[in-house]
Amino acid sequence: MKILSQKKNFVLREIKITDTKLFCSVTKFGNTNEIDIPFENVDGEKNSYKTTNTYFLLIAFVLCLSAVVTLVSTFKETKIQTVATVICFSLALLFFILYWFSRADF
Fold first, then answer.
1. d(CA 38, CA 9)
2. With 21 labelled, which of 14, 73, 96, 105 sits at a CA distance of 20 to 30 A?
3. Distances (CA, A) of 57 to 18, 32, 49, 52, 92
4. What are the entry keywords (predicted)?
């Protein structure tokens, strides 16, 4: 059995080659996807898989919605309300950027 591994930033890819199968595993932010392919099924076709972490997108949406609600909730604007709105928008932007960079094709 041969093991090939690649570590780049937060992504760890491992390919294990045995006598009968090919095992591929991709670990990203603690989330692991594994694929095993028997050599009988290997042909000239290209297979592609898309992985996304939708939790980041959901958190970004909730934070953006809470920032809008905080901004519109009262008519007179206070400094605390402005700071809370800026923090919520900043965190929403951070989570959206994390979602954008965590998408990958395999």
1. 30
2. 105
3. 38, 19, 19, 9, 9
4. Membrane, Transmembrane, Transmembrane helix
**What is the DSSP track for 28-79?**
ETTEEEEEEEEGGG--S-----EE--HHHHHHHHHHHHHHHHHHHS-SS--H
Q: Which domain holds residue 66?
A: 54-105
Residues in CB range of 98: below 8 A, 6 or more apart: 53, 56
Q: What is the pLDDT of residue 61?
A: 93
User: What does the alpha-carbon distance between residue 64 and residue 70 come to, in Å, rounded to a whole number?
Assistant: 10
Neighbours of 20 (CB within 10 A): 8
pLDDT band for position 63 (50/70/90)? very high
